């Protein structure tokens, strides 16, 4: 039996969200984080985990809308940098919890949408460009894997990484 492009994308989606195979999936990278840990910024500068999750949520939400054939809601970001937002409030446990719940819900919705795609959908033009949906989706999955790795690195720097696989 042949493996389809949709099946490959689903394997990658599962591995980047919650399956511990070759990489640390995002759900494990953010598991157990407090708002204080999520808002922490290294003394050398850079982004907080909260900002990385905001950034992924922004793009994943827009991608879900596009897969569904809808125009993404909300005002488009001025630029990529603005999708990260501020570092987060270390005392805002409700805000962090809400972002985690929304991120988890969105991950499930995206997986469901991927599972519903036909091979012809993957061969279609992505947003009126020469790129195919299959290519855009493969790159998106790499994007999430990249940022999950950054989160693990930040957790190691702050001393909050103690998850063993």
From TrEMBL:
Q: Where is the composition biased (Polar residues)?
A: 69-83
Q: Which stretches does the entry tag as region Disordered?
A: 69-96
Q: Which Pfam families is this protein grouped with?
A: DinB_2
In this chain the DinB-like domain maps to 26-151
Annotated InterPro entries: DinB-like, DinB/YfiT-like
Q: What is the recorded name of this protein?
A: Damage-inducible protein DinB
UniProt organism field? Paenibacillus pabuli
């Amino acid at each position: 039996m042949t493996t389809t492009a949709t099946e490959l994308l689903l394997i990658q989606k599962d591995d980047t969200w919650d399956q511990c195979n070759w990489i640390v999936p995002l759900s494990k990278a953010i598991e157990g984080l407090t708002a204080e840990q999520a808002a922490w910024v290294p003394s050398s500068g850079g982004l907080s985990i909260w900002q990385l999750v905001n950034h992924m949520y922004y793009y994943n939400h827009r991608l879900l809308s596009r897969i569904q054939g809808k125009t993404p809601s909300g005002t488009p970001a001025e630029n990529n940098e603005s999708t990260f937002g501020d570092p987060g409030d270390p005392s805002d446990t409700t805000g962090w919890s809400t972002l985690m719940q929304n991120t988890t819900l969105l991950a499930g919705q995206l997986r469901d949408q991927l599972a519903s795609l036909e091979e012809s959908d993957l061969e279609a033009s992505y947003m009126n460009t020469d790129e195919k949906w299959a290519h855009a989706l493969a790159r998106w999955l790499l994007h999430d894997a990249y940022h999950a790795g950054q989160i693990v690195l930040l957790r190691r720097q702050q001393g909050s990484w103690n998850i063993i696989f």
